[in-house]
Design goal:
single chain, 147 residues, 8 helices, 76% helix
Length: 147
């Protein structure tokens, strides 16, 4: 067994033949290190099986859905705020020519407080003139006191 392990070592050269054997082993090891550096196949396997990437992708999808729902909720809250009775009454009171507790004002209040759809219709008009015309038409009472 001893002879089989050290059969490459000769007594005549001594250190020189032993050095050549050691140098040959180091060259083999350096060849192995080159193979380790060039391992695209192993990297591909890691990317495919990486659980952190899957978790990251799932997390991003969940966050995108959460943000979409949040934006929708904010839009609904803003729309709900514009159709709240307090806000609509404030807009009504700020219309030019509207006198509080006049027949037009009372009829408009009754109409606007009665239903959300009435408030939404009133707020849908952008101009002051259109808002007044809408209320006159829906209530049947003119702003200037006539029927």
């Amino acid at each position: 067994m001893y002879g089989a392990e050290f059969s490459d070592v000769t007594e005549s050269g001594g250190d020189s033949s032993l050095d050549s054997r050691v140098n040959a082993e180091t060259e083999d090891e350096s060849d192995d290190s080159v193979d380790i550096d060039n391992m695209p196949r192993i990297k591909r396997k890691r990317e495919e099986a990486d659980p952190f990437v899957e978790v990251y992708v799932a997390r991003n999808a969940i966050l995108q859905e959460k943000n979409r729902l949040f934006e929708k909720m904010v839009q609904l809250m803003e729309r709900d705020h514009t159709c709240r009775v307090e806000h609509v009454v404030k807009v009504l009171n700020e219309l030019p020519g509207v006198i509080k507790w006049s027949p037009f004002h009372v009829a408009a209040l009754k109409h606007l407080v009665a239903d959300v759809a009435n408030r939404q219709g009133f707020m849908a008009f952008s101009s002051v003139y259109d808002k007044i015309c809408y209320l006159e038409h829906r209530t049947g009472v003119k702003l200037n006191g006539g029927l």
